[in-house]
Amino acid sequence: MKILAADGVSPKGIEILRNEGYEVVVKDKLPADELLAIIGEYDALIVRSASKVTKEVLEAGKNLKIIGRAGVGVDNIDVAEATARGIVVINSPGGNTIAATEHTMGMMLAMARHIPIANETTQKGEWNRKKYVGVELRGKTLGIVGLGRIGAGIAKRAQAFEMDVIGYDPYVTEDRAKAMGVRLASLDDIVAESDFITVHMPLTAETRNMFNKDNLHKMKKGVRLINCARGGIINEQDLADAVKEGIVAGAAIDVFTSEPMPADHPLLGLPGVVLTPHLGASTVEAQIGVSIDVAEGIRAHLKGEPVMTAVNMAPVSLQVMNVIKPYFDLAERLGCMAGALAEGPVKTVEAEYTGEITDVSTKLLTTAVLKGMLNPILETAVNYVNAPSLAKERGITVREVKNKETANFSNLLTVRVSTEKKTVTLQGALFGTEGRIVTIDGYRVDVDPHKRILVCPHTNCPGIIGKVGSIMGDAGINISGMQVSKTEQEGTNIMVLIVDNDIPDDVMAKVKSVDGIFGAKLINFDLL
Ligand SMILES: NC(=O)c1ccc[n+]([C@@H]2O[C@H](COP(=O)([O-])OP(=O)(O)OC[C@H]3O[C@@H](n4cnc5c(N)ncnc54)[C@H](O)[C@@H]3O)[C@@H](O)[C@H]2O)c1
Ligand SMILES: O=C(O)CC[C@@H](O)C(=O)O
After folding, report:
1. Is the CB of residue 290 below 6 angstroms from any atom belonging to ligand 2?
2. What are the φ and ψ backbone dihedral angles of 299, each rounded to 5 degrees?
3. Topology of 2-92+285-302 in CATH?
4. Mind telling me the catalytic residues?
């Protein structure tokens, strides 16, 4: 596996990936045409905000399986196109929160006290004490727009500065805001009441130009604005005009609609304006944090495990992940085996969960069942992102059933796969951390789903097992385990052989022709 790390990612994450045996090529800066030219060789790509992962890049990235954004915002990645191609996009939702929060506080103070210009002129030998009189934060009203991770961090720090904090975030409850010490307000109230306004939300159709000449003119004269989120939330030209008109006394901006910003950017050279080149996440700690986060995510995905930080699949909390994680492998193997035994176009897949596991969302485990069932039969690599849509495309109805009552096993996963002709039912359970198949179509077994398994339902009569054993022996196939089980229904048994080698078609044909055998299927989990 080959991984391309663009945009100068911290070596800590690279080390994790190299220790896993992956080849990692690190580029500090990668021009767009070079990225397009080389991306086809790579299985995974790591970017910060500089590289743009466009539709063309994704098209050229024929082997791409995952893109890791070493940061929060994924607006430099065409996530919809990646999803359509089954490419997982992950980010580091919390790795740079503190860095961006502290940078915002630094920008607020630097702007309020004219620190950058005071430094610049003092360095030149000037002594301008009267010119750079600032304002205090204490007692001022701070309007925070976007009360997510960074917004909440700003609220906490602003309160330590004795600011009166109000906030606007249509997706945050009163209770949550109260817990942050923030009084929820409408956007109009934020505009009208704030001495300082700071924005902390993604750039979306809703937030683009959220602050523009209309509401800038409704702000308190002398208001100070901060944008360390995304360029374009505050209209840059309208902000520059409002600074020139004396409505806005200060603006502290870290992010721009076009980065690097053009030489004729309207905010350049304006008094009271503090600019930094997208430095919010640029601390040693944050860069280590985000690179470890994406490396762990890439490692997990390339090993076929689900990734908690994938932005293009249903998010899973750590709490839920801790409960469901031990079941992923079992779910996938049950899906693989049920699909193989069903032997035909699948119409429905039902995943039934029994026991404690029913307390949490099991959606991702059902996706694991689909992944296991579809991966051996599709050309496209099936993963946690594309498995549900691939199943839908194939007209497969997927059902999830939850049953709190337990019988023999405290946590049981039942997978039923139906074709037009039959339904295959498999059950699996965890013993410690080890998954076992415990029933096959009602026959009680105890099978390790990591082995190569030959499943043969047969008539319960003497000689059949011996004949199959001889066929295997004659073909040089070693049997390292065997179980025979019967159901309540008299007369039929199931034979499960653990075999060490692949079984060629002619040998399978001989097994199937044994009198009394009414089916033989080799389950090869290597196809997963
Ligand atoms: N400057 C930097 O280097 C830097 C570093 C880290 C993060 N960021 C950016 O900062 C922003 C915030 O990051 P975060 O980690 O706090 O994200 P987050 O997802 O934790 O929070 C975003 C918040 O925005 C709110 N929101 C969404 N639409 C909104 C709207 N229309 N009006 C008001 N609120 C809205 C959401 O409800 C959420 O609470 C992101 O855009 C991120 O890319 C920049
Ligand atoms: O990579 C960076 O330095 C910027 C990161 C930041 O904008 C983010 O969204 O996480």
Report:
1. no
2. -55, -50
3. Rossmann fold (3.40.50)
4. 230, 259, 278
